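User: I'm new to structure prediction. If I give you an amino acid sequence, what do you actually give back? Let's try with this one:
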Amino acid sequence: MNSFEDLGVPQNLLSKLSAQGITEPTPIQHQAIPKALEGRDILGLAQTGTGKTAAFVLPLLARVLKIGGKREKKSVQSLILAPTRELASQIETTVKSFIEGSHLRVRLVVGGVSIAGQIKRLSKGSDILVATPGRLIDLIDRNALQLGDTKFLVLDEADQMLDLGFIHSLRKIAELLPVERQTMLFSATMPKKMSELAENFLREPIRVEAAPSGKVADKIAQTIHFVSKQDKNKLLTDLLAHHKGELSIVFSRTKHGAEKLLKVIINSGFSAVSIHGNKSQGQRQRALKAFRTGENKVLVATDVAARGLDIPLVKHVYNFDLPNVAENYVHRIGRTARAGSDGCAIAFCSSEEISELRAIQKVLGASIPVASGKPWVDFGGEIGASKKLKPRSKNRWNRKKFSGPSKKKNSFSTPNKSHRGKTGSSALVA
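Assistant: Good question. You get back a string of structure tokens that encode the predicted 3D arrangement of the chain. For your 430 residues, that looks like this:
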């Protein structure tokens, strides 16, 4: 099966793929599409950038177009849930590119915009609804939509939805969904909590996997700078100056930190914008548009931009602050080297971030090449002698004492399984 036609994609969607210059399926599409077209539940493990959006959108649209039927008021035939506004918006754009000229109606509901307009649009019913869990719950509470006739459910970046605390919202949504439905769950990682969700809410799923957690694109050149916290700003602006005409994303750990960093970058003569949870949806969309078009060359962001953001011209990703969740490092640097291009991922590590670096290298299964500074040294006394780790060689560290961050006891309680026989249905997979 070397073509989408071989996978069973119908002709009307094949023409859309051809118009977009998409000719060969990616590994995740190759595995998922045929089984999804058969109506099977899918458990997909894939990083962003592997083509997983089309892996669920194409079979979903094929089945919706085939079913047809009258659209009832407030009804939702297909529901796609995503953890962030940016990812939800990107999925909506992908769906629209495939249904142009058809009778299908796609709606997007996310926070940060007027809920009144969303209520009005949903009143006429939706063939495909793309939503973030929080805003969907708000709309359900206002009786703006009905999920009793929903036949298809997709949960994208499920592990991030759990990380963001959406489990209670997902459970509430699940109680409103019919037992008989097709569910596709896609996740970049498979922690214990995710395994429990998949076991309880997918019916005899087909497992497909491409680019599992820790796998970094071959064309991303990774480096790390060991630098004191107070010297990070100077190092960042010096490095940005070396490629002033290219697009760069700078990741900050906090919203407040992102705004402070934005001011530093602008005051240093760079054109920059920021996105994070304190920005309205309109502000975030305008910032992304300005960055995507190259009007602003630097985007300062928190982890709201770590997944799903697809801007092919991003050349550099800076981890100004190392992430608290090690897997997010892989997601962050995946914003570069898109569509077969080369990319650079530059990380800064201060003395306070050694544990985060250890966890990241454990996920990667390798150490990151050193660009400057000395690993595990005291940075002028910031780290005591007891915290030093001697380098094994130039770019290799002694990993004998390597350990990731401590894991808290899983507090997830398994819901009742009786609703869907073997698989359960009282809570929604994320």
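You can read the tokens as a compact description of the fold. Here is one thing that stands out. The radius of gyration is 22 Å.
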